[in-house]
Amino acid sequence: ESLVRTFTPFYFLVEPLDVLSVRGASVIMNCSAHCETPPRIEWKKDGTFLNLVSDDRRQLLPDGSLLINSVVHSKHNKPDEGYYQCVATVDSLGTIVSRTAKLTVAGR
User: Fold this and answer.
1) Which of 7, 10, 29, 98 could bond 66 through an S-S bridge, CB–CB 3.0 to 4.6 Å?
2) Residue 3 has what pLDDT?
């Protein structure tokens, strides 16, 4: 008789950590999730999903990490500073959300 497997392991291998950056630097927010079915990885910043498809500065790396090229930071424009979460989804199982990592950009 066959045993029905009721539990499929689905968990984060790596979750993002708080980062201190400077303007113009590149930052990687690390994230990697494990499952038999490769999870779909998305990123939230300040609670809102990032649209990385049309983004020329931010890209999703193959392992699920987020690369931010050339951090932008000025008095009136701080698009990169904030709180990031990695969101992993396997359609048949559901969604897991990473810890929240803060990206701080150091001033001059």
Assistant:
1) 29
2) 62
